[in-house]
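Ticket opened by: R.M.
Priority: normal
Category: complex prediction / small molecule

The reporter submitted a protein together with 2-acetamido-2-deoxy-beta-D-glucopyranose and asked that the result be attached to this ticket for the collaborator who will pick it up next week. Submitted input follows.
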Amino acid sequence: MKMEQKDTKPPPPPEPEKEGTGGAHIASAGFGVARPLVVLALSTCAVLLTVLSGAHRSLSLDLLISRQAAATSEGAPKNCSSASSTIDVEPPKPTVDKFLGGLLSPNFDEASCLSRYQSALFWKSSNHTPSPYLLQRLRSYESLHKKCAPNTELYNKSIEQLRSNHSTGPLECNYVVWMASDGLGNRMISLTSAFLYALLNNKVLLVDLPEDMKGLFCEPFPDTTWVLPSVDFPIKNLKSVWAFEKDPYRYGDMLKNKVLSTDLSTSNASLPAYLYLHLIHANDDFDKMFYCEDDQILLQKFPWLLLRSNQYFVPALFLIPEFEKELNLLFPERTSIFHLLGRYLFHPSNSVWGYITRYYEAYLANAKERLGMQIRILGNVDFAKHASYIINCALSSKLLPDVDLKDSAPSNLTEVKPKAVLVTSLNSGYFERLRDMYYEHATTTGDVIGVYQPSHEEEQHTEKLNHNMKALAEIYLLSLSDALITSRFSTFGYVAQGFGGLRPWLLVRPDAKNVCLHSVTMEPCFHFPPSYDCKARRKADLATLAPFLGHCEDFPNGIKLFY
Ligand SMILES: Nc1nc2c(ncn2[C@@H]2O[C@H](COP(=O)(O)OP(=O)(O)OP(=O)(O)O)[C@@H](O)[C@H]2O)c(=O)[nH]1
Ligand SMILES: *[C@@H]1O[C@H](CO)[C@@H](O)[C@H](O)[C@H]1NC(C)=O
Ligand SMILES: *[C@@H]1O[C@H](CO)[C@@H](O)[C@H](O)[C@H]1NC(C)=O
Ligand SMILES: *[C@@H]1O[C@H](CO)[C@@H](O)[C@H](O)[C@H]1NC(C)=O
Ligand SMILES: *[C@@H]1O[C@H](CO)[C@@H](O)[C@H](O)[C@H]1NC(C)=O
Ligand SMILES: *[C@@H]1O[C@H](CO)[C@@H](O)[C@H](O)[C@H]1NC(C)=O
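Result attached by the on-call engineer:
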């Protein structure tokens, strides 16, 4: 998340693309589908050799796939002549649960989105299991979505109603249209919030997909699409963030101008056809009335809610009595909401999955441990000081070994498996500093440290598809770590920790004794929550309104679910 104060100036419009193609060719189906398949087929031989060599603890893709193949004998891999005869000597391997505890519907075509069912091979299995009730609600959401999907009869009916310029109360199919704002991390946490909001309201989530997100993700719901067909959509200019703020049906403005009120006795016929919910960080107190129960009851009348957010607003939904009970049933463990819904919704497209699996196999699979370091610099920082600080965090938290500055004779390093550090950052300075440190000096533990950084894009270019593909791949690669160090206030890090089910070490100095802080949960922070107690009708600090809410460790103005 960028701007800390409200009413900041709009960011400059996206730069026109200089390179022409903007990476669109990479998203082409042929490349995207074929490549990972080839990788898998070829690697099956290495698999068996890995198993035979006794490298049981390796998390290599090959090994994992062989385990699954051996256990399920499904999609039998091609032969590897020299090893094939010994396969039956292998002890039985645990089956990988490719549906993630029932989170994922089995009704997808596997090849169209390899990451969906292969993710389980890469992630450590999660002990945050989805509740049976959540699974039931996801399945019924999926059938509702299919019934109401774009171009169905019911969808057309709802569109007709939108064209009529009036709402006449809820229809059979009602929608939340998510609109994008800011970087990929912001988009993913807000999209997840919008999905949960739709689920709670039995509404259908459609996505106004920006050009720079096309080809990034697979469809999350089986046999249907969540993409809003914007060509035929009666409301135009959804994508112009700053112009759309002035939309006449912006909910906050309608409240402010007293055109709409929650204690309304107005007939349904005078309701507008839709409402625009302006839920980005720089909204005002009227927009934030969205988080009150009376307002939610009014919003139920509208078949179309257009919602723009860059926030993780899930914590505030717990303060709306209407949703509270349902939320507790859905998520007996409140702190795994993003972890579960993120894994449910976001599946890298085959092209992005190619980036992820190639990089993982080349640099990370063979390590005995993986540490992810997400370094996001906001504002001016002294590079040398900040680099020392980050390294200090890793050393004092025992995530990395110290170096031996005495330069003693090299120890016997034969057959030592490296520890891998994956650095993600827009620049390469931090990576170089760390790599040089372990190149120039031995470690005190005898460990060998490999330091890797997939890209250094130098600047944020959210409007470019190829840039976003790398961003997603890196978020995902970070999530494959055993431990994570993340930058404060960064939604990029939030998504990685959520995917991975990891409590990150935050680059926040909690006190004089500790250099950085081991976060209590893996949940994202809601950076800019409302500050109004709807029940008491007065200003309040929301963190004090429920025992499980608190101020974020990395951004005290924000609120977060702590248990
Ligand atoms: N490839 C890559 N891109 C990055 C990295 N850090 C930031 N970016 C880019 O910058 C964007 C940052 O926006 P978000 O993903 O929303 O994350 P954030 O840290 O909350 O950033 P802001 O909202 O801009 O403050 C990402 O989506 C990427 O496009 C990185 O380590 N690797
Ligand atoms: C696979 O292995 C079996 C038994 O080892 C052998 O008979 C067969 O020809 C092999 N197939 C291929 C495609 O190599
Ligand atoms: C819905 O409307 C679209 C566009 O007008 C049309 O192509 C489609 O056939 C309609 N669907 C049904 C089921 O009527
Ligand atoms: C709805 O409003 C638009 C824009 O104000 C107008 O062009 C259109 O004719 C209206 N439609 C109906 C059915 O009144
Ligand atoms: C208005 O909509 C509500 C549902 O929100 C419905 O119960 C009510 O009957 C409608 N009133 C009229 C006058 O159509
Ligand atoms: C180094 O380690 C290897 C394997 O652990 C061992 O075979 C070899 O004897 C060791 N060499 C020395 C000099 O200690």
